[in-house]
Each structure stands twice: as C-alpha cells, then as structure tokens.
Write a structure and sequence with these properties.
By secondary structure, the protein is α/β, with parallel strands linked by helices. Helices cover about 40% and strands about 20% of the residues. The protein has 11 helices and 15 strands. It has a 7-stranded mixed sheet with strand order 1-12-7-2-3-4-13, sandwiched between helices. A hairpin with a 5-residue loop joins strand 14 and strand 15 (about 310-315). The longest helix has 20 residues, at about 140-160. This is LCP family protein.
Length: about 350
C-alpha cells in the first residue's frame, strides 16, 4: 500500500496549485525545482543549464564488469523494457568534507508513467542485500562504492528489468544548504533520538540545515534501523518540498535565489539531462497533483546478517518481481493495490 507520512496539515488548494510545478521538478531532479516564479524564470533557465554533468552516472557498453549497455540490455545481456515510462535514478551521496570515499546513502528510483499522470518514488534501503553485477551479493549501496552511479544503475536494472534513463546525484551538503535557504523545515518524527545537543522528539521538530542533516543520518537509535532512517529521509524530503512551495519562500527573492543556488551548485546529472530536457519534462508534468506523487519502499522480508557479519535487509524476491513486472508494464498502481 502507499506510504503514509505524518507531515501535518496539507497545503491549501491555492498553495498546491502554486507549488505543483515546483514539486514535480524537485522529484525529477533530486528535489531541484523552482518553476512558476515570474521574473526568476530566466535566472532558473541559466542555472539549470549550468548543472555539472557526469558521463559515468549511467552504464555504457561493456562498463563496470557486468557489461550492461544502458541501451536496452541488462548486465547479463537480457532485454530491458525501455518504453514503459521514464525512470530516474536519484542518488544522495553522504561524503563528508575531505572524504574521497563516497557512499550512496539515499537511493531512489523515480518512475514517471508514460501518460505523465503519476510519479512513483521507490526508495531502496541502503542495506538491501542484492546481487551486484560482476560481483557477489552485497548491500545495494556497495554498488556505488564499487562502480559509481553506472554500477548502481546496472544493479537496479537487474532488479527491475527496466532501463534507468537518467541519473542525478546530490551531496548531503546540498540538502543542508537547501534547508537553510528556506529558513529551516518542520519535520514530523515517528521516534525520538538524541544526537549530541540535538534532541529529536516524537512529533514536530523545527530543524535548520545542520540539524536536518543529523536527523536524516541517524539510524542506530531507531527501531528498524536503516528502514526507519529511510522513512525519516522521506519525511524530510516532503517537509522541504512543502516549505519550498510556501509563499514565504516563493515570494521572497533572497530565499528563492539562495535555494536555487544551493540546489544547482551541489548537483551532478547525466549528460542527457540538459536544461532544455528538464524544462520540457517539467512542462509535460504540469498537471500533476501532490496526490499523484507516491512514495514506495522496495520490498524486504526482514533482517539478517551477511557472510561478513554486516547487518542487512533481506530482499523479498517474490514481491520485488511483482514490483518489477509493474514497472515493466507501467502499472505500479496495480502493484500497490495488491500489496
């Protein structure tokens, strides 16, 4: 069934209409968005066009041990479905300042239906134990450590049998700056936690960028560890989107400009995500409503221990096959109705 998040009162119909296009762009571009902003449109266009690109975010022929092509075949040579909607890999990298080792602590496959009437955000927990192409089984975030976005995309393609069309990566520093840019966010926490001087209570928490970063990183004090951490991340993302579409941000030139800079300065996309493509895709989704954006957690059946002793989330292979089939046929709504 559809994920539910306690984020308080929903935006009014007027606020929803104003924020509709912004919400869509946030989802598609790792929460990069601002559309419908009057005199800022030209500025937005120039910023989107200047986003850094990386040709290694998606697989190419013979790449990353598995040999996946990214052009309609998987790492084992099997055919990938390429015409059942569009799939975006969104990577949140938690590399600390000065670190050369980069982890994919947020892994989301955003599926946009062929009719452009729904967007499904599928969160893959970082500890989900899966087969990494060209390697043994491991936690899914190890794919990024081994081979960057390309190998992570291959891993998801093997699980879903659909092509990952585009990819975007944003560092956690970007989320921190975006949070501060909008003046902080109000997030609902399902469980309390203590991180240094930061006291998270069950209920509403008003967080600045540094506090929000600690909030989404915590997992050891949460009952279901990485799974609850993922729920916190989704709650934060929704809180950031709601704050971004509020009049206090949209109608404030300083906050709006700072937000755009924070998003674009900390983002990398594949070469195919040009400024013109992003604008065209956002325009095609302009009629989406907030209820058309659905959060899903990739299916898992429980918790276990890997051969190396690490804690893992056990993939529910039967339900994963059902989700994969739903993606291949562009019928994720039917999967949600049955699960």
């Amino acid at each position: 069934m559809q994920e539910q998040y306690a984020d308080g009162a929903e935006p009014t119909p007027r606020t929803r209409r104003r924020g509709r296009r912004i919400l869509v762009a946030l989802l598609l571009m790792a929460f990069l968005a601002v559309a419908s902003m009057g005199g800022f449109l030209l500025y937005l266009n120039s910023k989107v066009g200047s986003i850094q690109t990386d040709t290694t975010l998606l697989p190419t022929a013979g790449s990353n041990d598995g040999g996946g092509t990214g052009e309609g075949t998987g790492s084992g040579g099997e055919t990938l479905v390429t015409d059942a909607g569009t799939n975006y890999l969104i990577i949140g990298s938690d590399a600390r300042p000065g670190e050369t080792f980069s982890r994919s602590d947020v892994i989301i496959l955003a599926h946009v239906t062929k009719k452009k009437d729904k967007v499904y955000l599928i969160h893959f927990p970082r500890d989900l134990y899966v087969q990494i192409p060209g390697r043994t089984k491991d936690k899914i975030n190890a794919a990024y450590a081994y081979g960057g976005g390309a190998l992570l995309a291959q891993t998801l393609q093997n699980l879903t049998k659909v092509k990952v069309d585009h990819a975007a990566k944003i560092d956690f520093e970007g989320f921190k700056r975006m949070t501060d840019a909008v003046g902080g966010v109000r997030v609902w926490a399902e469980q309390p936690s203590t991180q240094g001087d930061l006291q998270i209570v069950k209920g509403w928490n008003d967080l600045n960028g540094t506090q929000a970063l600690a909030f989404v990183r915590e997992r050891y004090q949460l009952r279901e560890g990485d799974i609850d951490r993922g729920r916190r991340q989704m709650a934060f993302v929704k809180a950031l989107m709601v704050k971004t579409i509020s009049p206090g941000v949209l109608l404030n030139p300083v906050k709006l400009t700072t937000f755009i800079n924070a998003a674009t300065d900390n983002m990398t996309v594949d070469a195919g995500l040009s400024g013109s493509y992003i604008r065209s895709e956002a325009l095609s989704l302009r009629n989406l409503r907030p209820d058309d954006i659905v959060f899903i957690t990739a299916p898992f059946s429980g918790y276990g221990t890997a051969p190396n002793g690490g804690a893992i989330d056990i993939l529910d292979e039967i339900r994963m096959d059902r989700l994969a089939e739903a993606l291949q046929n562009d019928k994720v709504d039917e999967y949600l109705a049955e699960n």
